Amino acid sequence: MAATSGRVLVVDDSEVIRQLIRVNLELEGFEVVTAADGAECLEVVGRVAPDVVTLDVVMPRLDGLRTAARLRAARETAHLPIAIVSACTPADLERGESVGVDGYLAKPFDPAELVALVRRLRAAAAGRRRFAYDFGGQARALAQTCRDSALSEQAQELVRPEEPHP
Hints:
With 166 residues, the protein is an alpha/beta fold. The protein has one domain (6-156): Rossmann fold (3-Layer(aba) Sandwich), CATH 3.40.50.2300. It is built from 6 helices and 6 strands, in the order βαβαβαβαβααβ. The chain has helices spanning 15-27, 38-48, 64-73, 90-99, 111-126, 137-147; strands spanning 6-11, 30-35, 52-55, 82-86, 103-106, 155-156. A 6-stranded mixed beta sheet has the order 2-1-3-4-5-6, with helices on both faces.
C-alpha cells in the first residue's frame, strides 16, 4: 500500500461537505477521518491521531471555534494544526485568532486551495513552525472582504510578519 500524505480529521455537520472534502483530500493521497460536530471530534481525535484538523464553525453540540479552543487547551492536541473551513465573518476571524487557529478557508472553496492549505499546515507542523493570525495588512484586507461579503475563494493563511510564508 502506498504511503499517505497524512491523516486529516474533517469536522463538519453537513454530510455533503464532509464527503466533498474527503474525496478531494483522498484524491491527493490523504487519509481522511470525519466527525459530524465538535463533540464527536473531541471523542475521536486521540484515537485517530490526525496530522491536521479542519473545522466548520457553525455546528450542533459544540461549534468549531469552541472545539479549536478545547484542542488547544489539551496537552495531547495543543500542537495540532487547525484550519477553519467555513463561511466568513469578521467575528469568526477574531475568535479564531484568539484560540490559535492556524488557517482559514472560506466556503465555497476551490478544492485545490483546500489541498494546498492542508499540505502547508502539515508541512509547517512537521517543521515545528506555528502559524497564527496576523491582523496586520493581509488580515485587515480579509476582514474588510468579509464585511463586504465578497470573500475570494482562496485559502487565507495568516502568518506572523516575522515568519516567511511557506
